[in-house]
TrEMBL record:
Name assigned to this protein: Predicted PurR-regulated permease PerM
Source organism (scientific name): Brevibacterium siliguriense
InterPro entries: AI-2E-like
A single Gene Ontology CC term: membrane
Principal cellular location given in the protein's record: membrane
Key word Zinc present: no
């Protein structure tokens, strides 16, 4: 009776804990994201320490540069992005009209039957239909609320990131002090390696996304796109997801280049595809060479699992988590298995053999 009651209580507690974790999932994702961003800034602090600065001054310099970067994005990038979104909306009628008047679109219309003017009229009729208007209005309202939520989450992540950068060493020391003394040296070395490797993965990913965004900006400027800054911002966030991000933005950027012309769309697709190859074989090995090598299959699986659970944030957080698990497997689990040169019997097995022999 007592054991059955204990099992029931344990099951109830497990269900309650799962429910609590589910309710706190968004908060936990923000915490983990801020932690990984802090780990990504830690290599910069260590580099400044190599130049002779103390850790306190290195943290101050990195925190100042981080705040300046965020302020620069808010002052220069965000207003330009809002203006380009407005321009994109205002230019939508003319863009659709010119798109329906292209020779290849007319050829498609002739092949499948229909008229380009009728197509444009149907598009605008569906846009200005009452039900469509209400749907779009509701979507705009939800987008506004989501934007406010994203801003508040961004502020929380920024504050937590700075806090983790300042307190990273004290966190590691407190974690090590919880273990027995004879295990602290090995655990401390493993913790330093995990944090350094994960920091390298995060910093390298941000660096690659920044280069990618600058390349996208340059291509759009050359093509004369009116939404170059917007595409640069989208490219930065989308390409934070390794492997799949660049391929996904290839489609997004090519479709966005239709704002200029179909020829610009083709030019962007070819140019960006060439850059993806250069990035994969020349840029990425140099930037990510010191970080832990995560197999492409695990990157894809981790990104898909993270995106399914938590959206874009989950996909971003999944990659450093995968790298951490790989380091633990390579440094702890595999060496422990290699140390077992011969099969050993458990005490229970030896007792059973002795009893029945």
């Amino acid at each position: 009776m007592t054991s059955g009651f204990a099992v029931a209580v344990g099951a109830i507690l497990a269900i309650a804990l799962t429910a609590v974790l589910y309710l706190l999932s968004s908060v936990l994702v923000l915490l983990v994201l801020a932690l990984f961003l802090g780990l990504g800034l830690d290599p910069v602090v260590r580099r400044l320490q190599g130049f002779g600065l103390s850790r306190a001054w290195g943290v101050c310099v990195v925190a100042f540069l981080f705040v300046v970067l965020v302020a620069g994005i808010l002052i220069f990038i965000v207003p330009a992005t809002v203006q380009q979104i407005k321009h994109l909306i205002d230019a939508a009628p003319e863009t659709i009209e010119s798109f329906t008047q292209t020779s290849w679109f007319r050829a498609v219309q002739t092949t499948v039957g229909g008229n380009s003017d009728d197509t444009a009229n149907r598009i605008w009729t569906s846009i200005f239909d009452l039900s469509s208007f209400l749907t779009v209005s509701g979507g705009v309202l939800k987008a506004g609320l989501s934007t406010l939520g994203a801003i508040s989450n961004a502020v929380i992540v920024i504050v937590l990131t700075l806090y983790f950068v300042v307190s990273l060493d004290s966190f590691k020391q407190a974690l090590v002090s919880l273990l027995p003394k004879y295990k602290r040296a090995r655990f401390s070395a493993l913790t330093d390696e995990v944090t350094a490797s994960v920091g390298g993965v995060v910093a390298g990913g941000v660096t690659l996304s920044t280069i990618n965004a600058l390349v996208v900006f340059a291509i759009n400027i050359v093509l004369g796109s009116p939404i170059a800054v917007l595409m640069m911002l989208v490219a930065f966030f989308v390409t934070l997801v390794p492997l799949m991000g660049s391929l996904l933005f290839l489609v997004i950027g090519s479709m966005a280049s239709l704002v200029v012309s179909p020829t610009a769309c083709l030019v962007f697709a070819v140019t960006y595809l060439i850059y993806i190859q250069i990035e994969a074989y020349a840029v990425t090995p140099k930037i990510m060479g010191r970080a832990v090598a995560v197999p492409g299959v695990l990157v894809i699986i981790g990104a898909i699992a993270g995106a399914t659970l938590m959206g874009l944030l989950g996909a971003l957080v999944a990659i450093p988590i995968t790298a951490s698990v790989l380091i633990i497997l390579r440094k702890v689990v595999i060496p422990a298995q290699d140390a077992k040169s011969s099969p050993t019997e458990s005490p229970k097995r030896r007792w059973m053999v002795k009893t029945y022999s």
